[in-house]
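Two entries, shown back to back:
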Amino acid sequence: MSDRLVKFLSHVDMVKISCVETTNLVEKARKIHGLNPTPTAALGRTLTMGVLMGTMLKEDGEKITIQILGDGPLGSILVCGNKKGEVKGYVGNPLAEAELNEQGKLNVKAIVGKGQLNVIKDIGLKEPYVGNVPLQSGEIAEDFAYYYSVSEQIPTAVALGVLVNKDGTVKKAGGYIIQVMPDTPDEIIKLIENRIAESKSITSMLDEGKSLEEIATYISDDLNTYVVSECEPKYVCDCSKERMERAICSMSKKDILELAEDEVTEICCHFCNKKYHFSKNEILNLVEMK
């Protein structure tokens, strides 16, 4: 089945919910980067958040970049997304691992470590919007909930999950984000908080075969929850030789000339591992262009 993101409104339009299944795109990322199970969970959660946040952008040309800069063995996490639900990303160390946590689950916190979460929104202005907060747990969902409360001052509940098979493949991945309008009564907020506290994880619900509609209705505790829109999220890398040329041109003239010392220069895209080759003459032509 294809991945899905569905947006909902509940409690007479006072509560916004986005639910997403990202099993296929997280498995694609795992294959591209050769990820161990715990890095799969870390990148998968961040990619899922990239889908959720990207589809909240207002215009098609806008983009969002998420950076998680931790001091753990995983290194940094970088994810880019857009309004269409297209995401791409990578981690510093695809082979990082740690012992299972106290609950016997993948220990994302241990490989992420302490550090900072940056959210960069390119919404067509001269300068992008940049929000950053210290990591609260390294579990990623909690860190984004904190980001929304501090940086955007929006009460937000975030759930992210990646369930990995024994062979390392992705069994289920997904998440949801819930935000309430400023005038939402306290009793409705408490109702949703209680329901979230007693609910199973997002991946458990997906693994049980529950639809996104059923999950949204359950966590909102409102039978009148209804669908606003939906899309199919995908792992998409938009790299090209022309983009790589622009990247080379952004380097100093001295550094470009150093590349021209080799007969062939190979540049690899971090997001999809596709390799691009430039001859010595092509590099020299880029020097002249610069």
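entry 2 starts here
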Amino acid sequence: MDTNELLRRGVAEVIVESELRQRLERGTVLRLKQGFDPTKPDMHIGHAVGLRKLRRFQDLGHQVVLIVGDWTAQIGDPSGRDETRSRLTADEVRQNAETYMEQFFRVVDRGRTEVRWQSEWFGDFKLENALDLAGRFTLAQMLAHDTFRKRYESRSPLTILELMYPMLQAYDSVAIKADVEFGGTDQKFNILAGRELMGQLGMEPQQVLLVPLIPGTDGRKMSKTFLNTVDITMPPNEMFGRIMSMSDEVLPLYFEVLSGMPAAELGELRTSLQAGAVNPRDLKMRLAREIIAQFHNPEAGAEAEAAFIRQFVQRELPADIPEYKLSEATGIVDLMVAATLASSKGEARRLIDGGGVRVDGERVEGYDLTLNPAAGVVVQVGRRKFVRVV
């Protein structure tokens, strides 16, 4: 991979690009910092964008240093949040970290990764160290952080502990002598704090490589908060279905940051989409196969595609419909709630009103339909929820 593709494909910003190019050209092995706060146990494919870039650098001989934020996770990254996070216990953090790392190493080579826990340096941090760190940043600098400024101006709670978060993340870079720190564009402020602190301490400031945040299934930033993610540990069929539900507009970005499509072909893809010369559904299928192959295996991708075609293209029923056993005649609304096809009777009625409920392929028109215990019919809600009544 040439340097231009390394620093520009799937990259939102490099700070400072000319300096990082010089370091790469010198042939020095760079220490690549990637930190994570194990506030939740699961990763989604948005996280994989940065991990894939890390792996590219790693394959060129550079050293990945994974920082497990077992201290900062107990504060929680305030970026993009309009309220203070709930504090996690040390045990919760450690459990999340173990699950998170298992997923991290599905992309990054474990054997060529140095894993460091913040407790190695913060465990012995004294009050004088904390005061020295706090004294190197001003309130004005912290209020330049978009999240902090908005909460301060709206008089929302903003704790001193949260203001310490960027400083602690910055100190991680000092502790491991980072050459480059990787992160999403939402981490720009925190990563630049590392550059600032390293410069103050007479160290060569780390370079910054920011990757884009990708849209989720609803078009907003992919986030657990919005329930719009494609999780790395999802079963292949569910992963395939979620990728197929993405808008057509995300395809060029997704192929750029999550696939191995050659650069020349990427240009052709954009042109073909704009001209309407290609069916977006076919591109989504290709993308879904490739993503599933990364996190499961190629066979799983092919099987998920075949299942999707049976169910949605050829309108066949899925092969593994779960069964729901009835002991007495039951109305469709009660059945949908009992079989977890709807979370409440109100939701069940709304789904029926919207035409999203079918029994043996026939649309349910009202709430008075009753199903018998020996019916053997298939109840379908939306495109992906099925039960067979037995």
